[in-house]
Amino acid sequence: MTWRPVQERDLASALAFLRSHIQTSMFLLGNLEQYGLGGVAPRATSLWMLGELRGILGITNGGMVLLQAPGLNDAEWRAAKSILNGRDVTGCSGDATQVEAFLSATGLSGRADASIAREPLFELALDALRMPDCDDVSLIPIGDAPRETVEAWRAQYLAEVPGLPAGDPVHVARDDITRYIEGDTHRVLTSNGEPVAMTGFNAQAASAVQIGGVYTPAHLRGRGYARKAVALHLSEARKRGVSLAILFAANAAAAAAYRAVGFENCGAFGMIFFDTEQEVRA
User: Fold this and answer.
1) Nearest one of 56, 60, 126, 61 to 95, comparing CA atoms
2) What does R_g of the chain's alpha carbons equal in angstroms?
3) What is the residue-level pLDDT of the chain in tens, covering all 282 positions?
4) 82: alpha, beta or left? (left if phi > 0; alpha if psi -120 to 50)
5) How far apart are CA 280 and CA 282, in angstroms?
6) What CA–CA distance (Å, rounded) separates 228 from 50?
7) Which of 8, 91, 110, 218 could covalently link to 273 via disulfide, CB atoms 3.0 to 4.6 Å apart?
8) Rounded-to-integer distance, Cα 224 and Cα 209, Å
9) Which of these CATH numbers, 3.90.420.10, 3.40.630.30, 1.20.1250.20, 3.30.565.10, describes 130-261?
10) Beta 208-211 vs 244-248: how paired, if at all?
């Protein structure tokens, strides 16, 4: 079997394939829904398919490799290396086992400047959402919160979470918050009018959302603010027709907060970001 570029005529079948593995396809689906096939935006994604849809490999304009190819053998993963020939790769994400196999086949697993983050993956059908007591809090659009506060929170999040892309956290945070406001993707939880936590969706596709960037400042942790923020945002999404939520947890405390509102483990998600772009040669 060989890999070939996905054309517009293949797109309906490719989308159906990705939706059948939606738990680990949200970045692929979200990028395609927002930018279409190809395009010029940094997160716009070109796709390749193996045979008659044995697997899909996406590459964003920013160099991120996105995988959805369950059950491939070593030879099929090695064949994927030719797709990347001469390209600068900045990272990779997808089902953790697939990411590990891809990195090994392409020779990227030995990079000294990065290691794979393997995080527990969770899903929740929103009709099973368990709402905590939220009488003492409110949820507001991130654009209505003090800009300096949410930028500082985002910078601290970037500094705290291991394995995220390299770069100046303050500069990256500023750009991220601008994107969140423009896309109306994130919310801020307030208590007595004061911001206490932040949550958001880092991918949206059809009737599913993927949660990301959940943050509570250190001095306010342990009060249930993260789970309240997530639950209120999901309740809001459910009212507009979203039926499924997906996320991956960076630590045990986060996983406990998500389980408290009904999330259940459904696998492992893998991510790796390189400090410098790596040119791949077949």
Assistant:
1) 56
2) 19
3) 799 999 999 999 999 999 999 999 999 999 999 999 988 888 899 999 999 899 999 999 999 999 999 999 999 999 998 888 888 888 999 999 999 999 988 887 765 456 788 999 999 999 999 999 999 999 999 999 999 999 999 999 998 876 666 678 899 999 999 999 999 999 999 999 999 999 999 999 989 999 999 999 999 999 999 999 999 999 999 999 999 999 999 888 889 999 999 999 999 999 998 876 555 554
4) alpha
5) 7
6) 42
7) 91
8) 22
9) 3.40.630.30
10) parallel
Cβ–Cβ < 8 Å for 86, 205:
no
> What are the structure tokens assigned to 55, written together?
């697997």
> What is the pairing mode between strands 117-125 and 264-279?
antiparallel
Instruction: Compute the half-sphere exposure of residue 30: CA atoms within 13 Å on the CB side of its CA.
Output: 18
* Assigned token pair, 53: 């849809």
- 103: its two tokens: 């990195």
Per-domain boundaries in the chain: 3-121+270-279, 130-261
